[in-house]
Each structure stands twice: as structure tokens, then as C-alpha cells.
Design goal:
alpha+beta, Porin, 8-stranded antiparallel beta barrel, two-stranded antiparallel ribbon, elongated
Length: about 290
């Protein structure tokens, strides 16, 4: 008797699943996104808010799910490089500092996306987005002999040293707030092309390993070695370069946090046969288009 009841319950579940799963699959508005473009940053070695100077490549993969004709939720994974070099700086005193850095950026995000216009009735629409992201970075530079040197372990500004208790070591995995916008073009019923600019507000001033002031040369050498001193001040490598600055001299500006950003093209391809939000296969209704 118990087995019979259990079998009946199982059959009901199977029937419900057979009804609702196809409906869900047919109603979904899922897209695979492929991104390619450039990345850059704004900080102590790159003062411009937006520029393609010293920009690097960025690529990404993602998924977008349409919640309505205007709203969608997106998740993306992006791999990029950012970097900058004082030798390109228009300010003579910063060129004399002679610092540089690179870092790989790996980011995963969750975004809410809003189309201003309904792509069921328009070929083009502006759109905006915002959300939350987690990213990982690890700044490095090349020494005078061309060796790749990761900068965080050197505590170039005294981060984590007992002699500078107010300077905590920075974390290489952090949160950011991504936001931006772009233009989306409906190329076919199943393919859209987008160009967007996405800014990332971070909560660190150490994307470039530069933030505050120089620390005492002897103290840094005793704690982290001669290589730390070499990478903290690169001005001595230049012709007529000066000696290591005094403890407390300005190295960077800590008033503002660093930013990074991506810009480029995204191709978005619909996945599976999908019904629209009005009950038709392509998302349209049988009613005539509204007068625009």
C-alpha cells in the first residue's frame, strides 16, 4: 500500500515536470555573450579619466537572461591586462620617478541591464547597466635587467611593516562596482551586437602599487631587501637620475582610489528556441507595431 502511494506521488511529480520544464525552456530568453576590446585604468601612473593611451587587450564570456522586453540580468567573466609607465607622463617630475606596472585582471560580475528602447520594435537601443563584481589582480614590473618582479611582497610603501603600522598590506582579490552603458543593435532575431564602456569603481589605491609616500630606505632594505628599494624608486636608472627620496616624500596620491575599465564589442547569440514575453516565438505580438 505504501509503495503504491509512493509510486502515485512519483508519477504526479513526473507529470508536473513534463508540463512545466518544456514551458520554462520555451519561455527562456537566454543569450551567450562573447566580448572583445580594450582595458585601461586611472590612477597614480595614468591620470586621465578615460584614454586609449597604454590600453591593453580584454576578452570575456558571459550569459544574459531577459527578464522583460527592457530588463535583463547578466553575468560575465573577463580577462584583461592593465598597465602604465611614467616615461609617457607629460609631467617632468613624474617622468623622473620612472615607475611602471602591469597586472592581469580577472573579473566575475553580476549585472542588471536596461534597454532604453524595446528591440522588438527597434533595431538600435541605448542601454545602461550596473551591478557588483569580484576581481583579482597582482601588480608587477620589470627590473633594470628585464626580470619580472611582483610588487606586493616587496612592500614598496611599507605596507605591512612594523615601522609603518598605519599601512596595512593590500588584498589582491577585492570587490568593485561596475557600471556603464552602450549601444545594442539587433542584427538578426537571434543575434545582437553591442558596443559598451564599463567602468569599475574599486576600493583600493594599489592597482599600480603606488599610493602614498616613500618609506625610509634603510628600513625597507632591512625588512624586504635591496630589490624592494630598487623597485620603490626607479629614478636612479635614468641618465642624471636623483638618489632615493627621503622618508615621507610624496610617491603617489592616496586621496582617490584607482579605477579600471573595459570598452569593446559584444556579440550575443540566443540559446535554444524561445518564446517572447507576449506568447510568440520571436517575442512579438500579432498586433501591428505601435506608431512611433
Amino acid at each position: 500500500m505504501i509503495n503504491s502511494i509512493t509510486q502515485k506521488k512519483s508519477m504526479r511529480k513526473l507529470i508536473l515536470l513534463s508540463v512545466f520544464i518544456p514551458s520554462f525552456v520555451h519561455a527562456q530568453k537566454l543569450h551567450a555573450d562573447l566580448f572583445g576590446g580594450f582595458s585601461n585604468y586611472q590612477g597614480d601612473l595614468q591620470g586621465k579619466y578615460f584614454t586609449t593611451a597604454q590600453a591593453k587587450a580584454a576578452i570575456g564570456l558571459g550569459l544574459r537572461y531577459d527578464l522583460s522586453d527592457h530588463f535583463a540580468v547578466r553575468t560575465n567573466f573577463t580577462y584583461a591586462t592593465i598597465g602604465a609607465d611614467d616615461k609617457y607622463n607629460p609631467q617632468a617630475d613624474l617622468r623622473a620617478r620612472n615607475l611602471s606596472f602591469h597586472t592581469k585582471i580577472t573579473e566575475a560580475n553580476l549585472l542588471l541591464d536596461y534597454n532604453i528602447l524595446n528591440l522588438n520594435y527597434h533595431k538600435l537601443t541605448p542601454y545602461v547597466f550596473a551591478g557588483v563584481a569580484v576581481f583579482h589582480y597582482n601588480p608587477y614590473a620589470y627590473d633594470s635587467t628585464g626580470n619580472k618582479i611582483y610588487l606586493k611582497p616587496l612592500s614598496t610603501e611599507g605596507e605591512g611593516l612594523a615601522a609603518y603600522p598605519d599601512r596595512a598590506a593590500y588584498h589582491l582579490t577585492q570587490f568593485a562596482i561596475p557600471f556603464g552603458g552602450g549601444i545594442r543593435w539587433k542584427f538578426t532575431e537571434n543575434i545582437t551586437l553591442s558596443y559598451e564602456l564599463g567602468l569599475r569603481k574599486t576600493f583600493t589605491d594599489y592597482l599600480d602599487d603606488v599610493s602614498t609616500t616613500y618609506v625610509d630606505q634603510a628600513t625597507l632594505a632591512a625588512a624586504k631587501g635591496a630589490k624592494a628599494v630598487e623597485m620603490a624608486w626607479r629614478g636612479g636608472e635614468l641618465k642624471n637620475g636623483t638618489t632615493y627620496p627621503a622618508d615621507g616624500e610624496i610617491r603617489g596620491g592616496s586621496k582617490f582610489k584607482d579605477w579600471y575599465y573595459f570598452s569593446g564589442l559584444t556579440i550575443s547569440i540566443g540559446i535554444g528556441k524561445r518564446k517572447g514575453f507576449h506568447g510568440t516565438d520571436n517575442g512579438r505580438t500579432d498586433c501591428p507595431k505601435p506608431v512611433r
